[in-house]
Amino acid sequence: MSTLAALALALLTSSTPRTDTTVAVTTGTRLELENLMGDVSVDAWTRSSVRIVASHGRGSTVSVELDHGSLMISAEGRMGAPTTVDYQLTVPQWMAVQLSGMDGDIKVSGTRGTIHAETVKGDVKIEGGSGAITVASIEGTVRVEATRGNVEATSVNQDVWVIGVTGPLTAESVNGQVVLDRVASPRIEASSVNGNVMFTGTIVPSGAYHFSSHNGHLRVGLAEAANVSVDATTYQGGVHSAIGRSFEVVKKGRRYRMKLGMGAASMELESFNGRILLDTPEAIQKLIARYQAGDELEDESEDENDE
What we know:
Number of strands: 26
Strand content: over 45%
Keywords: Signal
Protein name: DUF4097 domain-containing protein
Signal peptide: 1-19
Organism: Eiseniibacteriota bacterium
Helix content: under 10%
Distance between the termini: 67 Å
Largest sheet: 26 strands, mixed
Oligomer: single chain
């Protein structure tokens, strides 16, 4: 379908504060949505069509263009002015989605295609998905659950939560916590500048894991039966093991090492001003549950149990 034909068919100007339309799509079509202000919610169904329900101001224009394998959605107010639109979209399970916004939350649930979702002032939540999954917010919380694929999750000023994910993972925050729970990944890069990093999950024998924080603590859940070599580096913090095994001192006050099993996987732990704690997965999950319930985790300073 040509661009002009698509525009002729799908330019929707509504005098009422609601647009509701359904567009047929073929396998491989990609959804692209830019929304300046307002929330975006995406759910999946088994039909080969996209339903677009948009709540907006009177006189706003919702433009839907199907061209060159992409279904592109955008909106504007009277005389081209910015407008607030809340979208509820239902897409085929296979559809890849690319969503961007300035001021609003984004939620994607039940899709199986690749996902790219980013916003400036809002939360991003992803449930399900496979392939490449990239999510980001500057002022909001980022949460990714039950996905399979390569995940990149970042927030500047809030927390990053990654729960029950399978696949390579990069999780970063500047001023928030990074929480990884029940993750099964062959490769993890997780870091925060001013927040804590918490981890529980499956250690793959050939895996590589790197956790770091400048001003926060690292809390890592490891079973004593894990098969991993752990290298810990700290400058003004301490290291502590509560899993029945002690760290070997490489350079007192700086570098420590521990080998569990055959040490097949590699794990690097780095903190400049914070502590590094190894504990059982169950203990770390209790900490995560407390934090999720709203408890502020205490600022643990170096004590006599540190190495």
